[in-house]
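Journal club prep, shared notes

We agreed each person brings one worked example of a sequence with its structure written out as tokens. Mine is Alpha/beta fold hydrolase. I'm keeping it raw so we can talk through how to read the token line rather than staring at a rendered picture. Sequence first:
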Amino acid sequence: MTLSLDSQLWIRRFHPAPAAKARLVCFPHAGGSASYFHPVSSALSPSVEVLAVQYPGRQDRRNDPLVDDLFVLADQLTEILGAEPGPLAFFGHSMGASLAFEVARRLEARGTQLLGLYVSGRRAPSAFRDERYHLESDDGLLAEVKRLSGTDAKVLEDDEIIRMVLPALRNDYKAAETYRYRPGPDVSCPILALIGDQDPKVTSDEARQWATHTSGAFELRTYPGAHFYLNEHHASVNRLIAARLA
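Then the structure, token by token:
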């Protein structure tokens, strides 16, 4: 299959596997990039082909205009992913979970049935919190990022790196924090929610509310750890997803 220029812009295939039995689309967290999912791609290939989403404004897309509206991002990615051969499943972490849900809604409305929606480290769309870290000073925003332990603290002490990552971080925090669930058709695919038991960004009750957003099956898995529990439990999560897609 010849990939469109738009697909090459938005999607990274670290281990191309055109004969894979399933494709897992991975949506990064706020400030994250496609490379976060390189280990997932390596672990699941070749039976599952991982498509890692590359948001504008980072890494090789650093000069592309940032998008601070999840609905706009969802519309753009729906056009890209609607052309992908199935069967498809989605995995999103933190902000990426909300975005994956919105793209899933749009694709299902077009008749595309997903194998599953795996939402990590994120409360359900209808579980609202009024968070405004994107309005904080640079120091305030960086303090929140360090609190979540998503980025090596030593990296955030490098002024040059901070100048590079702050615009994308603030942009993504705005997109995630200004997102508001719009009632309407949700999804019919199974939803698997995964959280860390010490995650300050989502409680078990907030995660369980994902069950109300699908007419299909729902399951919640809890791991020891905080917001980036994935970093310690990636092997276990990869095995779980592989088993679901088998």
